Fold this protein.
Amino acid sequence: MKFDRLLSIMLLLQHRDLIQARELAERLEVSPRTIYRDVEALSAAGVPVYAERGKHGGIGLLAGFRTDVTGLTTDEARALFVLASQGAHSALGLDHAHGTALRKVMADLPAPHRPAAELTSRRILVDPDRWLAGPRPEADLETLRAAVFTDRRLRIRYRHSDQATLRTYTVDPYGLVAKAGTWYLVADHRGRPRLFRTDRLSGVSVMPAEARRRQGVELEQVWKELRRQVEDRSEGVRIAVRVRRERLDMVTRIAGAYFAGPPEPLEDEPEWMSVHLTYPVLEAIRHLLQFGASVEVTGPPEARAELLRASAEIAEMYGVA
């Protein structure tokens, strides 16, 4: 709708001195000609909007002009107040700022939308942490936040999951990402994207030098690339297993991230389900031993041999002949 687009243009212009019409058109999915018509409409309505010609020109608002949020719809107001229960602001030390921001938004909302916003904050709770996640080391998010907001390089000491010793890196951060209750630092190391769990950082120091990010690359783009690498199982070890039907939900909850496809019933054995899984390395299939006799690896032979070796090691440890 045109009204929503006009409000969006004002909100975008409030955060930048000048924005080219082409960029506004791309963000709002209209033509540059439509943007110019919208600018004329805003000007006719008394909004102090102007256009500058030339290579470095664009569309802008006179300094000091602000709009309010009375253009929010009911659903948009609800969406803002769902954020109150997500908890990321607490980890970043923004609890107080978050609370005052919501109070300001609430005060500026049209009266008909306030009950819906208040009800949403009481009826919707988003808990990002996994069940039984257990205690985690404290992460120095305050220092990391300072670095990413001031565009500074970082020197970090990091412990990889498969190593006991710490390694030192000098990195150029793009930002922080919270996923499933875990915070990650997304940064370039020697020009290549890397992912660091903040709870494995042992030392963090902000350097005076500016971050040397790749030109035109933003956090969301780097995160998508890294996430794709983590989730890509095309080169892993693929195994076939059968799972007792009554234990399938539990196995799916714990090992579902490794499923290569949906479980399928076994025609001749109705009490079992067939599942294919992909693990990064052969030794990782020892993860399945926690399910005892509820999961049997049926192939390939080297996978069965790996679990047999693991079982023999456990038996020897406990003195079983």
Notes: The chain has four domains: 2-61, 74-123, 141-229, 237-317. Residues 2-61 form a domain with the Arc Repressor Mutant, subunit A fold (CATH 1.10.10.10).
